[in-house]
Amino acid sequence: MTRQELDQALARLGLDVPAKERDEAVAVLPLLQQMLDRLRPSGGRDVAAEPAHVVKFPEA
Fold it and tell me: pTM of the full predicted structure?
């Protein structure tokens, strides 16, 4: 997200954010994107693949 895109988003939301905070937000956006890329790998991961979801208990 560029500074211009951030400014437009904040304007649509009606938020008045100081320029210094806008600059800080734009500076950390690449780091946030890297974190999201690690949490959500391309191709995704099926939640059903979690061991807690695939264990079947014997019927009583």
Answer: 0.56
